[in-house]
Design brief:
This protein is α+β, with helices and mostly antiparallel strands. It has 13 helices and eleven strands. Strands 1, 2, 3, 4, 5, 6, 7, 8, 9, 10 and 11 form an eleven-stranded mixed beta sheet that branches. Strand 7 and strand 8 form a beta hairpin. The longest helix has 37 residues. The mean pLDDT is 88.
Length: 416
Amino acid sequence: MSVLISTTLGLGIAACMITYSLIHLMSKDPLPNKSERVFHIQFDNWQLGLAAIAPDLPPDEVTWRDAMNIVHAKQAKYQAANAITWGMVTPADKNIPPFLGIIRATHGEFFPMFKVPFLYGQGWQNFPANNVEYVTVLSKSTNKRIFGGLNSVGQTLPMLGKLFTVVGVLDDWHPSPKFFDMSFGAFYQPEDIYLPLQIKSELELPHGGNLNCWETNIADDYQAILNSECVNLNLWVELPSAQNKQQYENFLKAYVEQQKALGRFPKAINNQLLDINQWLAHKEVVSADMYVFFYLALLFLLVCLFNAASLMSTKFTAKNSEVALRRALGANQQSIFAQCLTETSILGGLGALIGLVLCIFGLQGITYLYPNFSAFVSLDMTLMLITVCISLVSSILAGLIPIIKVCRLAPASYLK
């Protein structure tokens, strides 16, 4: 009976904690102590009468022209645009076969802005508009693949038909959610290689991620796309403090008014400057379906609690004769209550243990089914403590009415 009660509690707690763990981990601040100072920029450069995002929101990305203008204006502490692309990597070591590398093209201030950890070396500085060097930063896995995990700073790497110099190697880094570019979802794998953004234009690398255009008469050449109103780049800035937001919004407004004078931005000014948590809410990283699953899990926990309460009632009813004998020998109601409460707490502890084991297996199953979640799905100490507390409270609530009934029984009828 005790095993059955604990297992019933454990099942309800596991179902509830698996969904809660996902919501908790998916909505976690990816850049704590800094997220309120890092902002995502959106401009509404869409055609008059059209909405980039219904009902009337600006596109999530910005054009090449706007990204370059804002970055090189240097009105923030850090500023960087970024986009995903790809290309062939051809290591000099003939024993390492060429491979298609996934590339993050960005400005150098991307690394300090997002507190990217380095194993070796460092990133590059923001290059002037018409000047760029063939440098690269490698992910830890790519460095291990090409250079065996050794310090490769200063080494050369042939790729994209050019020779690049390695200036840095990242340590393990997989922010979840991947807030700085959610083109392929909030939890996809990190890139292999990081390059200066101007190289994307110079070598005409593919436009990865979202490429959205409202113009229909764009020429087929690469430069025409860059000069068009097509949006493809995520633009981020870090301000010295959250109090500087209004000042920077005024700068963005002045910039759009300047572009209006040049014949762009036909719609009313509709700039968006969202900090990281506002941006995650805008992108609905935690979908409404996830909350529905959580509420269903809570209902399942309630069903388990009712079943556990029924089982505890049966368990304590079987002890009526024993309790009556103890009362006849001098035990008061308080001591009987303490004994039953202790037993119930032990059952709750066993339920917590079973719930934790089932929760761990459930989360492992999720990472198996959805590999992109593997970087962030885990049961940390906070969640473990919450699980134990929920189990203890649940067991006490489930056993409270049966305990009170046992404590209030009249011993005389059982002693006959």
